[in-house]
Write a structure and sequence with these properties.
38% helix; five-stranded mixed beta sheet; single chain; alpha/beta; 277 residues
Amino acid sequence: MIKNNSHKYSISAMCKVLQIPRSTYYYESKVKEPTDEITPKVIEIFKASRNNYGTRKIKVELKKAGYIVSRRKIGRIMKQNGLVSNYTIAKYRPHVNKCNESKIANELNREFNTDKPYSAVVSDLTYVRVNRKWNYVCFLVDLFNREIIGYSAGPNKDAPLVYRAFARVKTRLDNITLFHTDRGNEFKNKIIDEVLDTFNIRRSLSMKGCPHDNAVAEATFKIFKTEFANNYHFETLEQLEIMLADYVNWFNNIRIHGTLGYLSPRQYKLHNLKKTV
């Protein structure tokens, strides 16, 4: 427990709270020399995943490296070495959204798998504590490969936050065919309407009070909260923005996704675009 939280709290403070002598902790935490070649590989993969991968994904990464290992053995190695995934303890917070009464239909209709980049982009917002205040993060996610193509962070849950996420998109915005969100007023307003109209992007809205209509965006933020937001204390918005950029880069280029055949979003995109050439 102390080892897995040492990046957030001081060892002295945790030992004091748990009433454990520091000498005992340092004695018990001495790294034991592994007696096989699998253990260090498991530890390396787990650390490279930022403490997020469980036995299933570690097994996939070991297979890529030429090792065939059962999930049971991987789990045993993780337990012996105090490797606890961020997903072991689910973390939830209630989230209440105001919704608009627009007549715009749900054109996406829960078709979450597409065969062309940018044919459908989904978006949502979540909140992150910065110092003693709530700040907000917006993602734009391409359903083709689950890549975060645009993101932003800021102190307000509003249209400019969404606008800044669009500004980070590296492709031409008129390549986006459909933009799907929930009915939050930050998505349905004059600023965002002008962006969509200018680049001929069709709009799609979830049914009122139905988060399942935007399931991929919801799932992406669950990952984001578990792997990133819940594990750090941000002193400033600037610190959040720097660490968020690093996380998005890792998420897009390195993190393997079960829904993508255990490839990263960029790997999946390159693999599938080669097929069409």
